[in-house]
Amino acid sequence: MDPEITRRGLLLVLSSPSGAGKTSIARALLDSDPNLSLSVSVTTRPMRAGERDGVDYDFIGKAEFQSLVERGALIEHAEVFGNHYGTPRAPVEDALTAGRDMLFDIDWQGTQQISEGLTEDIVTVFVLPPSTDELEKRLRGRALDSEDVIRRRMAKSADEMSHYREYQYVLVNRALDESVYAVRAILTAERLKRRRQHGLVDFVNRLRRESGG
Ligand SMILES: Nc1nc2c(ncn2[C@@H]2O[C@H](COP(=O)(O)OP(=O)(O)O)[C@@H](O)[C@H]2O)c(=O)[nH]1
Ligand SMILES: Nc1ncnc2c1ncn2[C@@H]1O[C@H](COP(=O)(O)OP(=O)(O)O)[C@@H](O)[C@H]1O
């Protein structure tokens, strides 16, 4: 991009029923895109094997969570599967003004709350599994949750999927590399939206002057 043209950051939201693959897509995007960073949520859910505190989530207690809510430090928050989750406000506001993009792995309740305040900045993608059998296979294959938790997540998936209409883009996650490719394409196109690019008037005026128009 020409240095005269700067851009406001965007907020890329990925939602899906649990196990459809949004975390896998998110990790691949983050690994390959230096201008994209993950919005690290706070949660009261216990840490899973393989997760890192401060990287995947900030794992906090219920009292601390409540205090963040009361201080208005969360841009949105919701209860999912009996645990509390929320998005810290400050990193989001900093990223937008600095022209950096942020990725959110949040549910439909959080997406609705962020959409209300930041309608112009948000790009939303809903990820569907290819089939219910495959969804269950992926949840079991992840081997991180107990049988009871897996059953609860499967039972909630129909409810979560009913919100696909509230999203701008919808993607069926068949082959992971194809899904990552598709979300990268969305990101590329959204970054080129005219309204996100500042300085275009001066840039085009200069081009026109230089070409004698
Ligand atoms: N509203 C909201 N939802 C969140 C946040 N962080 C995670 N979630 C959602 O909470 C649900 C459960 O997340 P998690 O416990 O990590 O399980 P998994 O995504 O199914 O592996 C998922 O639908 C996440 O997208 C957050 O900060 N806000
Ligand atoms: N396209 C895919 N094909 C096969 N397995 C997948 C695919 N995407 C993700 N998985 C696997 O499915 C499981 C759930 O994926 P994950 O990214 O944790 O889902 P979510 O974040 O939506 O709960 C993981 O074991 C992951 O490796």
UniProtKB/TrEMBL annotation:
It comes from the Bacteria. Its EC number is 2.7.4.8. It catalyses: GMP + ATP = GDP + ADP. It is found in: Cytoplasm. InterPro entries: GK/Ca_channel_bsu (IPR008145), Guanylate_kin-like_dom (IPR008144), Guanylate_kinase (IPR017665), Guanylate_kinase_CS (IPR020590), P-loop_NTPase (IPR027417). Gene3D superfamilies: Guanylate Kinase phosphate binding domain, P-loop containing nucleotide triphosphate hydrolases. ATP binds at residues 16-23. Residues 9-188 form the Guanylate kinase-like domain. One of its GO terms (cellular component) is cytosol. One of its GO terms (molecular function) is GMP kinase activity. PROSITE patterns: GUANYLATE_KINASE_1, GUANYLATE_KINASE_2. CDD domains: GMPK. Keywords: ATP-binding, Cytoplasm, Kinase, Nucleotide-binding, Transferase. NCBIfam families: guanyl_kin. HAMAP family: Guanylate_kinase. Belongs to the guanylate kinase family. PANTHER family: GUANYLATE KINASE (PTHR23117:SF13), GUANYLATE KINASE-RELATED (PTHR23117). Essential for recycling GMP and indirectly, cGMP. This is Guanylate kinase. It comes from Roseiterribacter gracilis.
